[in-house]
Amino acid sequence: MLPLLAGCIVVSARLAPDGSGTMTMHYRVAYDATEFLEKRRFTSSHVRVESVKITESLDAVVTLAFDDVAQLPTTPAFRDVRVVREREGDGERVTVIVPRVTAIALAGATPRRPGAPGPQITWYLPGRVREANHGAVVSGNLVTWSFSLDDYLAEPSIDLSVRYDTAADTS
Q: What domain range is 38 assigned to?
């Protein structure tokens, strides 16, 4: 996942009650990236790439489906990411731990400006969001985290955590 976060990445994911879901990512790729290679980076026995598009300006859009959000790290692209999905009280919690981008990963990136946008991650959850960390914006079953690239790089990792009602809790 490190090269993905060398610039601005926008992630939108939808989680089903059973932990399966879909994800779409918009990000910049290296000049030598190909749709074939990006598809291979995001594929595993638990993750299926539905589409990959790389534009001439090196913007990529990848859409994938997963059978269990906790299995995202089975892909080469997410191998350094840790995802935990667990029952917590009368709801469920998903925690995603994303390691910091290293200077090596930034070597080929576009020079960054102070205050440049960093990751933006939005999750549509199967129940009402009860709490989310890092000052996330919450509305019903939607949670969005946004970071400047400087803020993201200042931490050893970004731990995103959200607790939400399970389907049984929303009646």
A: 2-170
